[in-house]
Amino acid sequence: MPLMESSRYLNELIKCVRCGSCKAFCPTYDEDMTEAMGARGRLALLWGLSTGQLKPSAVLNDRIFSCILCGACSGLCPLEIDIKELIYLGRSLLKGSDVKRRYLRLLTKFSSKRPELSFNLLKIAQHMLFPYLLKKGILPFHIELPEHHLRDRVQIFTVSKKRGRVAVFTGCTVNFLYPHLGESLINVLQKLNYEVILPVGEVCCGAPLRTLGLEKEAIELAKKNFRIFSKLNVDALLSLCPTCTLTLKEEYPKLIGEGIERAMDISRFLINKIDSPLPSLASQSVTATYHDPCHLSYGLGIKKEPREILKNIGINLIEAEEERCCGFGGIFSLSFKELSQGLLEKCIGNYTKTGAEIIITACPGCMIQLTKEMKNKPVLHIIEAIEEALLID
Ligand code: SF4
Ligand code: SF4
Fold it and tell me: What would be the CATH architecture of the domain defined by 6-97?
């Protein structure tokens, strides 16, 4: 079933009693303070649209497309309404009238169909194109594309004393922007005696397409990935991007009826599978603040595992006063630059107060966003800290 059936959509929407519990941690409501920029308001707009009381308009579309899809509202609804799923469906119904994001849709469709070609074209053009786009305010962050992407060829990384076998879902951000993170993951897994495979044929998980209401295109990609990854004889399918893991595991069942059960985040994998303690960086006495990626904490419920790992390797964790979304949200940061920047500044303000030397997170998207504003502290992915500890050992 490609989309939630129309009757089910209405049945879900009609359940809402407008109690407002879902607004409690909504970052866009927190930033904007208007009803239509929160979870409850968005559902009221979708109800108005589905009953014909409202018509699509630029303003209404912006309210629905400005949801960052962070999932902070998930689990807060006493009636267990799947708010994010309704917003995805609302977007797919609105995409025809959503003129503002039409070029983003074209570019996202093209790059998800031809990722290598898009990467190579951008690499050739980056030194002229990126400064221009930055100056015009079209691109909200600077990024230097690496020389090579991670998945250049068929890859199997063997080990002599094999403890197990894992597959890696690289995801577009790690593959094309931060291949060094993928290399760190492979190093860590090999050091722990896991054979690692990067199967041929991986495609984008489909999340950016869904974000823009392109459900049909996301379903095509989901089917391709499912065909490749669901049949592998591996202990786990690991990804360094929580959005990819969440999509493969939790959202594919809603898109294609089946998810990839073994998709797992690296910190949960290490806590579950590795019985001996990881080596400690204690002699370095590093202080760090850990940033929770929304799709890891709200989506996959993983908060304590990365902290446990960081403490195990001897990092002195200093918690921020409050947990805040960094405002990245992939396409959101391109489509709602001011809102994204406002969320980022609050988040950074929070981390500056901790006095920690570094910021550690577990999402390449959060790294892009935090690096933009965090000028005097390094922002690392947790896999880099783990690799550092294992190198010392
Ligand atoms: S997913 Fe996040 S931004 Fe969207 S309505 Fe829920 S809490 Fe708000
Ligand atoms: S918490 Fe549930 S019932 Fe209450 S306003 Fe939000 S979606 Fe509606």
Answer: Orthogonal Bundle (1.10)
